[in-house]
Write a structure and sequence with these properties.
- This protein is of the alpha/beta class.
- The chain has eleven helices and 15 strands.
- It folds into two domains: about 35 residues, no CATH class; about 260 residues, Alpha-Beta Barrel (TIM Barrel).
- The strands form three sheets. Strands 7, 8, 9, 10, 11, 12, 13, 14 and 15 form a nine-stranded parallel beta sheet that branches.
- This is Divergent polysaccharide deacetylase.
- Keywords: Membrane, Transmembrane, Transmembrane helix.
- Pfam families: Polysacc_deac_2.
Amino acid sequence: MGTDLHAPLGQNRGPGRQRRSIPFGRILGGFCLIAIAGFSLYSALLRDHLQKTQPVEAAKKEDPAPPAETKPAATEKIDQAGLTQVDPQSGANATRIVTGDGSVVTMFSPNNRDGSGPVLINANQVGQDPRMAATPNDSLLEDSPFGKLPITSPSGLRPMDQYARPWSGARGTRVAIVVSGLGLSQTGTQRAIEKLPEEITLAFAVSGNSLQRWMQEARRGGHEILIQVPFEPFDYPSNNPGPDTLLTSLSAAKNVENLHKAMGKITNYTGVMNYLGGRFLANPGAMEPVLRDIGKRGLLFLDDGSSAQSKSGTLAKTLDVPHAFADVQLDGELQQDAILRKLDELERIARRNGSAIGVASAFDESVDAISKWSEEAAMRGVEIVAVSALADDPKHP
């Protein structure tokens, strides 16, 4: 219809409106694009689902992953038997053994070091790393009302073994020298530790002061140490060795208790040494329970040889207790020349018998004479060893 409302119907009509055709091609193309996109999305989802549900075994067969293995810092040597030995710089050796079923067993052991780096502590080793000499082995201690007491470990390791000073093992002329009374004089103790050669064994009196500190200094200095326990002398009580003296008049339980009080003063010692004690050492009934307890705890007993009536040696053999007996009292006469003569006598005994033990107190004269004599002994073929090396030990006959 035209725009002139007054024109007669049917007249002046313009050309008729043309009908538009429907674009079927475009619609069909759109459907195709939608179908292709939908199919692609469906395929992606299906593939992801199949990958998630695929068995682990099949995946491993398709794409086997190499087993992870950490390479050691050092080279490995594999012998024909399948043994792998690793010598890393970390302070430990690792030995890998391939078993019959293909599994690998790794065993670790301490590696020899040059003195630097971490310290590896092996609870079963005999002797101590010098860097750990002042540190007790906890497996060789038990708690008590009197402090930590020495014991033999469940594996059989004894304090006598753990805290022993190593020696050459040669069966030449061997001499052990024990300097006792450390801890009674602070200046005298410090002088003895600083001046005496490390081969000299040091015995600490339980009535001394600052024993734990002196023990640590002595051990760091390379010394083997003993604990010196007061025993009843013949002229007791006019000659009183000190508090908690072991007495023949006391019960066995009380004497063992006093022994434990003494033992709890310090740690890291290889044995017990008597202080005086002529009457007690001569009494088998009093000595037996004391020696039995010492041996049970993995310690040695050193008799200072001051009493000719001592029964300690016979009892110790009967009870299988490691023990030693001093051959010479070095400073009965407190002059350096006299002490040097006694040291020469000690050497003669050692040359005759193979070994000998001398004891002295920590007087300045004794320390000076022993230091001087020790410097010359090695040139004469005398090896100075710790007292544990000369003990009669039933475990190592």
